Amino acid sequence: MGNSLDELGPSSATGALRWSEERFRLLVESVSDYAIYLLDVSGRVESWNPGAQRLKGYRPDEIIGQHYSVFYTAPDRADRLPDRLLATAREQGRTRHSGWRVRKDGTRFWADAVITALFDDDGQHTGFAKVTRDMTEAHLATEARERALEERQQAVQRLEELDRWRRDFVSMIAHDLQTPIVGINGFLDLVLAGQIPDDELPDVHERLRSNARSMQELVDNLRAYTLLQEGRVEFRPQQLPLADFTAQLLADMAPVLREHTTRVDVPDDLRISIDRQALERILRNLLGNAARHTPPGTTVSIRAHRQGPTVIVEVHDDGPGIPDDLLERMFERFERGSSGGTGLGLAIARQLVELHDGAIEVISEPGAGAVFRLRLPDTDRSRDAHPEDSAR
């Protein structure tokens, strides 16, 4: 007559083994926080505890016999991660891995899993035991802490950049204000002391005006740059006849360009819808930049033409050109080049152009002059070309 487990009890060797196996089975089946199951040597599921069903969503009859790779994401399967983990466990005895896993319903959870290779008494490989725990909350908390740390580091970097900007700003202001102020004070002292001959007074007056213009340019650029950074610039587009506009601008800038030849190549009928003050500031900065960086006697010209719904405006000079190492930095704030200036004019020009949904570029080769090219959309022309858009 056969003996029951209770009859055998833990006192005999056979009973002890069966008793231990039964207690282990009951333990595994009672665990609900961990997925504990067996795989055969090829990775197919052989057993399935309630914790596995709760975590992964499969009933035993749905998953037993299926390859365990079904729990992995498509990229991990394509990368053959499930096979590599089994190979590592077989070679090293066990392996541990954390990553995203997929439930039956397609949702994902962050798993911390241990795979242990199983061998019989003769050392033959019989399969694997796999224990998986859901660590999604802990993983998301870690990611949140890492994001918060990264955001704090970025905030510190922004503060450091702001501090560098402040130092550069103060240094630039001190330098650019000092030069014209010293010049004005020096000339005024000579004039008031009567030490300037009458025939030299016109030249001194022009120098005083030049220094005053430099100070005014600095103040204007600082104010414009501050307004742009604070987003407090309002545009009022209007139809501008470019030929008349550019001719008047060059006349107004005659004192700045007095040592240069100026030309205008703009069709008389070319018009564009744009904010007048913005376009004037853009071109003033480009023309002033050309005057500073080209020697006396060279030519500075404005050219414009239409290209579909876009108006191309170019400021040309035939000066020495721009070095290659400076071309990429031309529109950065405080980039002053070798001939001074406020270091803000081109940065302001770029911002104003981009706020009009346009683009600006510079083309230059050493010894061949420079071209600053604006591409400005003509909003009125665009609406005329697509009347259905304007009706929306």
From TrEMBL:
Keywords: ATP-binding, Kinase, Membrane, Nucleotide-binding, Phosphoprotein, Transferase, Transmembrane, Transmembrane helix, Two-component regulatory system. Residues 20-93 form the PAS domain. Its EC number is 2.7.13.3. Residues 95-147 form the PAC domain. One of its GO terms (cellular component) is plasma membrane. It catalyses: ATP + protein L-histidine = ADP + protein N-phospho-L-histidine. The keyword Manganese does not apply. It is found in: Cell membrane; Membrane. GO terms for molecular function: ATP binding; phosphorelay response regulator activity; phosphorelay sensor kinase activity; protein kinase activator activity. CDD domains: HATPase, HisKA, PAS. One of its GO terms (biological process) is osmosensory signaling via phosphorelay pathway. Residues 172-380 form the Histidine kinase domain. PANTHER family: SENSOR HISTIDINE KINASE GLRK, TWO-COMPONENT HISTIDINE KINASE. This is Sensor-like histidine kinase SenX3. The lineage of its organism: Bacteria, Bacillati, Actinomycetota, Nitriliruptoria, Egicoccales.
